[in-house]
Amino acid sequence: xxxxxxxxxxxxxxxxxxxxxxxxxxxxxxxxxxxxxxxxxxxxxxxxxxxxxxxxxxxxxxxxxxxxxxxxxxxxxxxxxxxxxxxxxxxxxxxxxxxxxxxxxxxxxxxxxxxxxxxxxxxxxxxxxxxxxxxxxxxxxxxxxxxxxxxxxxxxxxxxxxxxxxxxxxxxxxxxxxxxx
Length: 181
Fold this sequence. Notes:
- The protein is mainly α.
- It has helices spanning 2-13, 17-39, 42-58, 69-90, 112-120, 125-136, 141-148, 152-172.
- It starts with a helix and ends in a 9-residue tail after the last helix.
């Protein structure tokens, strides 16, 4: 796998068009999924994912072939998302009156996946990023720690707190795992 990544990177750096398409195809879904989870807005996620892939290709010459390519690409995407979130928090939003959401008692019964999605929206940004990288992108704790520039122990703590918060939120919403689990 590592040899294939080095070869793909070399082909991209040589400007081979098919290699560039192959690079984008290899990472676009994972990058978009990470961006969507972090930004929670489809259009923003599409824009940042595209920007991240372009940036990854542009800076491919700085990638160290001794390390896996996927965490490096995801780190670029996570950093772009953090930048976008930082800009978003500094931008004032108009205060239009939005209709009240339907209460949980009035909403139809949601499936576990939908309930989990809703619960994940309540996680802190860094906990969500860590959770998604570990469970969805299947990165190791060490890879996530390196990607997020925090110690391994912090990642373990964030994963524990995320799982605990998600379980509590699901319990409060009346979503509990079946007895056979």
